[in-house]
């Protein structure tokens, strides 16, 4: 969400951003709604001021005639207010609905494009592995090694359900522990945040496309049942399952005013993540590449309102993820996201993609985003700068490592001709062996 004063002063740039990001928003309609609500509010305030003056006149009236005249005028004012206030409420509701779609103007170096096909590769590390045998995908490998059971997963969990078993559990948890240990060593404070959150946390972080949850377009789950308050009454709060730790981590600071000397705040969160994948119908229907629940380590940074410093922080976050890919021995590339593949609030975004030889494709294994103050305005997170002025913080996030996709990348890149999986050196302490499917222990 942006400041309306900023919107009024940057109409041309915002119209370009709306076009380049492919957002269905008429900025002129928004500005018209803004003018209408401001005009109505001004008229209402004038009437209220007049009403107060008339109340004073009634109290000071010396004759019945003066009192009756003031009362009559007061009734007229009251009737006008009764007419204008619903109109203002309607105009303001329209304004607020349109306001949530206003995008952040993307960074100058963001590529202009319509879809992920227009994203720009800016860095590549490692060589795609050459096999002297036909490589298998993670589905075949997982079944043969008895570390994945997709059939039972679908039976119990439905479409995209899965079981991770035996050494697969040690490998997947090892990925998470390795990532968590790495993040702590880089100065990120660890958290295990709530995975069940109130509506404001998801709206504030930008997980709703509108003002409220819409199950037709928002890729998250709402809980159907209500819990009870301490009074024993059913809670009126709507609850949702998070799609990443980001909403919980950012909402931790909601409605707070921080101090500049405490910034940047660096946090990493471990959580189970839930996504309905409503917008991905028909995509990646086999295996565990695209699933409804998974584990992930997420990075979040709350920073001062400085574009250059926030971009450096974003580059730092992306570099840490790249470092982990390299230590895991996974070929990867860094993609700069184009305007048409960005969500409205993002100023600058990058994806990391690992090479999956079994699936013969590059696959997203992380995403780093700089939102500037777009999320902070929704969550009302400010800080006091060195001059004593209050400003909204800047907020950034990045996937440290996602469990299923890194799990897939390891299975497919480290498979052997005999069907075993070599365990990357940095994960051996967690898995307890050098090879899955073999007999070699650490």
List keywords for this structure.
BirA Bifunctional Protein, domain 2, 442 residues, EC 6.1.1.11, 2 domains, Helix Hairpins, three-stranded antiparallel beta sheet, 40% helix, 13 helices, single chain, alpha+beta, eight-stranded mixed beta sheet
Write up this protein.
This protein has 442 residues and is of the alpha+beta class. The protein has 13 helices and 18 strands. It has an eight-stranded mixed sheet. The chain has a three-stranded antiparallel sheet with strand order 5-7-6. A hairpin with a 5-residue loop joins β14 and β15 (390-392). The chain is elongated. The two termini are 52 Å apart. The model has no long low-confidence stretch (mean pLDDT 92).
Proportion of residues in extended strands: 15-25%
Strand line-up of the largest beta sheet:
1-11-12-13-16-10-9-4
Helical content class: 25-40%
Average of pLDDT: 92
The end-to-end distance, rounded to whole angstroms, is 52 Å
Number of domains: 2
Number of helices: 13
EC number: 6.1.1.11
Coiled coil: 30-64
Binding site for L-serine: 244, 275, 298, 397
Pathway: Aminoacyl-tRNA biosynthesis; selenocysteinyl-tRNA(Sec) biosynthesis; L-seryl-tRNA(Sec) from L-serine and tRNA(Sec): step 1/1
Compile the SSE list and pairings.
Blueprint: H1 4-9, H2 11-21, H3 27-60, H4 64-99, E1 120-125, H5 138-144, E2 148-149, H6 150-157, E3 163-164, H7 167-185, E4 189-191, E5 196-198, H8 199-205, E6 221-222, E7 239-241, H9 246-251, E8 257-259, E9 265-274, E10 293-303, H10 307-327, E11 332-336, E12 348-356, E13 361-370, H11 374-379, E14 382-384, E15 390-392, E16 394-402, H12 403-413, E17 421-422, H13 428-431, E18 435-436
Parallel strand pairs: 4-9, 8-14
Antiparallel strand pairs: 1-11, 2-3, 5-7, 6-7, 9-10, 10-16, 11-12, 12-13, 13-16, 14-15, 17-18
